[in-house]
Amino acid sequence: MSSVMSTSQRDDGHPSPAAVSATALRKSYGDKTVLDGIDLDIPAGSVFALLGPNGAGKTTAVKILSTLITADGGQARVAGHDLSTEAQAVRAAIGVTGQFSAVDGLITGEENMLLMADLHHLSRSEGRRVAAGLLERFDLVEAAKKPASTYSGGMKRRLDIAMTLVGSPRIIFLDEPTTGLDPRSRHTMWGIIRELVTGGVTVFLTTQYLEEADQLADRIAVLHNGRIAAEGSAEELKRLIPGGHVRLRFTDPVVYQSAASALREVTRDDEALVLQVPNDGSQRELRSLLEWLDTAGIEADELTVHTPDLDDVFFALTATDIPSQPEEAVR
Question: How far apart, in whole angstroms, are the C-alpha atoms of residue 1 and residue 22?
Fold first, then answer.
């Protein structure tokens, strides 16, 4: 791979180096193409979620960007370092937590932390200081002296991320970090991820939980057939899928009939006095509808916007009969 430079836009309008950038990354195993030329541009201090069905190549992308395996082609930089020529510098700047915990269950949580501190060549005193701070941060002080094998799934996952943070990484790759966790533990993990980003860390997240991406990610990319099928914010992706509408509910049958007669392409529910008007939920379309209602002197008692959710987007973009469409992706 050769060097590639990429920039992202800061809030002040000036370009800044991307935390992760890649162009045309490719990877095949035998005659199976896993990554077929994907592009990435992830701003520092953000959460980027890579979605895709099993076998889509999410973990392969993480392994390439974290230097665990090499790509067959393409260019990439991570934390400002060229992936192919500065792999050691990349490793020093990142942390990686997989869906399977790296925690050693035979030793205590504290010993796991101190082992990680040794691997990062911290002095004994510094290692103890860092370990103690992270154990407190992740609410593991009471369990610190207990064997990690006695921890719950959520505790092990918190310890796993705490171990990852020993080296103060600027970028963390979380490969399906909440797989197997109960809803309460999953929400706790979401809080941890938000806190990391608030502290300036960039999070590259792979997940099969669409709600997780919707809750956490600044930008989401859907991986299908080795390519990025679409990319954008959750709201941008939802607008790619037809089916959005505005629901107008009336209490006055006369006003309802007047609105139903005046509006075109409307779905009626005469019993409930509800009209459904096709609308993608964008500010422009909503403003247009509201202006039309004002001009027509029609006032609904209730107006709600309904847009497709990420489940709809995911299933539409990864359906076997729908080709990948990188050219139509929201950028």
Answer: 10
Residues found in the chain:
331
Query: CA torsion sign, 218 to 222 to 226 to 228?
Result: negative
Q: How far apart (Å, rounded) are the C-alpha atoms in residues 55 and 34? A: 8
Q: How many CB atoms lie within 10 A of CB 264?
A: 6
What are the residues facing 16 on neighbouring strands?
Answer: 8
Q: Which of 43, 16, 50, 67 is nearest to 222 (CA)?
A: 50
Per-residue pLDDT of the chain (331 residues; tens, 9 = 90+): 433 434 444 445 544 568 999 999 999 999 999 999 999 999 999 999 999 888 889 999 999 999 999 999 999 999 999 999 999 999 999 999 876 667 899 999 999 999 999 999 999 999 999 999 999 999 999 999 999 999 998 899 899 999 999 989 999 999 888 888 888 888 888 999 999 999 999 999 998 788 889 999 999 999 998 999 999 998 888 878 777 788 999 999 999 998 998 887 788 999 999 998 888 777 888 888 889 888 888 889 999 887 777 888 888 888 754 343 333 333 3
- Phi and psi for 137 in degrees, rounded to 5? -60, -35
DSSP string, 60-112: HHHHHHTTSS--SEEEEEETTEETTT-HHHHHHHEEEE-SS----TTSBHHHH
Q: Which residue has the tokens 């990484």?
A: 169
Q: How far apart (Å, rounded) are the C-alpha atoms in residues 156 and 101?
A: 7
Q: Three-state DSSP class for 285?
A: helix
| Strands across the sheet containing 274-278 | 267-269, 274-278, 245-249, 302-306
Domains of the chain: 7-103+151-238 (3.40.50.300), 245-306 (no CATH)
What is the rounded CA–CA span in Å between residue 52 and residue 209?
Answer: 10
> Global pTM?
0.75
